[in-house]
Amino acid sequence: MLSVRNLHVNLNGKQILHGVDLDVTDGESLVIVGCSGTGKSVLLKSILGLVPKQRGTVIIQGIDLDHATKDERHKALSCIGMLFQGGALFDSLTIWENVAFGLIYGQGMDPGAAQEIAFEKMQQVDLERRTAFLYPASLSGGMRKRVGLARALASQPKIIFFDEPTTGLDPITSNIVNDLIVRSVKYSEIGAITITHDLGSLRQIADKVAFLCNGKIIWTGSVEGLDNTENPYVRQFVDAKTVGPLTDKRN
Ligand SMILES: Nc1ncnc2c1ncn2[C@@H]1O[C@H](COP(=O)(O)OP(=O)(O)OP(=O)(O)O)[C@@H](O)[C@H]1O
Ligand SMILES: [Mg+2]
Fold first, then answer.
1. What is the per-residue DSSP string for 83-144?
2. Which atom of ligand 1 is found nearest the CA of 212?
3. Which ligand 1 atom is at minimum distance from the Cα of 164?
4. 138 CB within 6 A, ligand 1
5. Which of 9, 11, 161, 167 to mutate to test the pocket of ligand 1 (most atoms within 8 A of CB)?
């Protein structure tokens, strides 16, 4: 479904990614963890072509983005839904228009039909109907996060990228979001890449875990593997120790 090989990204002279490889298959949920500022969000954005890559290959549903026609590229990228870490909502559009944006402007769907889908997706993320006609500025941070999630799901993507889907949500809403991710992946057979610092959420949603450190994926394994690994970087992260190789590198 998605294959990334040897991805290198350099931004403003700083090498962010140094050769990342990853694969996601149908119905598989990959969770990426790693310290703040290591390039997790940049990794997802570079797969989508939102930040330029220096080197490497991205293949989405068999289409190599560097050797694709404009139509093939559009087809490949429209398979992907993305929940951005900061929401990235359009301030001047109402909530339902934000959720329906890709349906109306990307797929050319009739606005009435798109509005129905927007309402349905909003309900799935526990957003009340009354919020549909408000603007993002009048929503709380957690509500905006859920609007971003509803938008990512609205176009029925085959692969979804969730960048910190539960950050800033209360524990109950976090569980609603975790369930939604699991249901989407298992029942709709989509592939998912989730970035999270929330280890409780990781335990609920991950089939496979990848640990990003210094621009590379230095460890991959299962959730059980995460609990049992002796890799010192992963151990320090999971056990939240203030002393260890991750903090040595920072100092
Ligand atoms: N558009 C950009 N231009 C220049 N540098 C950028 C850009 N976006 C991100 N960076 C830099 O890339 C590095 C990685 O950022 P990124 O947002 O991917 O971190 P992250 O792993 O997602 O962290 P967090 O867990 O805090 O969200 C940071 O040093 C950041 O300053
Ligand atoms: Mg990030």
1. E-TT----TTS-HHHHHHHIIIIIT---HHHHHHHHHHHHHHTT--GGGGGS-GGGS-HHHH
2. 21
3. 27
4. no
5. 11
Two tokens, residue 239: 């056990």
pTM of the predicted model as reported, rounded to 2 decimal places: 0.91
42 lines ligand 1 (CB under 6 A): yes
* C-alpha 13 to ligand 1 mean position (Å): 13
| pLDDT tens-place values along the chain, 251 residues long | 999 999 999 999 999 999 999 999 988 999 999 999 999 999 999 999 999 999 999 999 999 999 999 999 988 998 999 988 888 899 999 999 999 999 998 889 999 999 999 999 999 888 999 999 999 999 988 889 899 989 998 988 999 999 998 988 889 888 888 988 888 887 778 899 999 998 999 999 999 999 999 899 999 999 999 999 999 999 999 999 999 999 875 54
Domains of the chain, earliest start first: 1-79+159-166+195-251 (3.40.50.300)
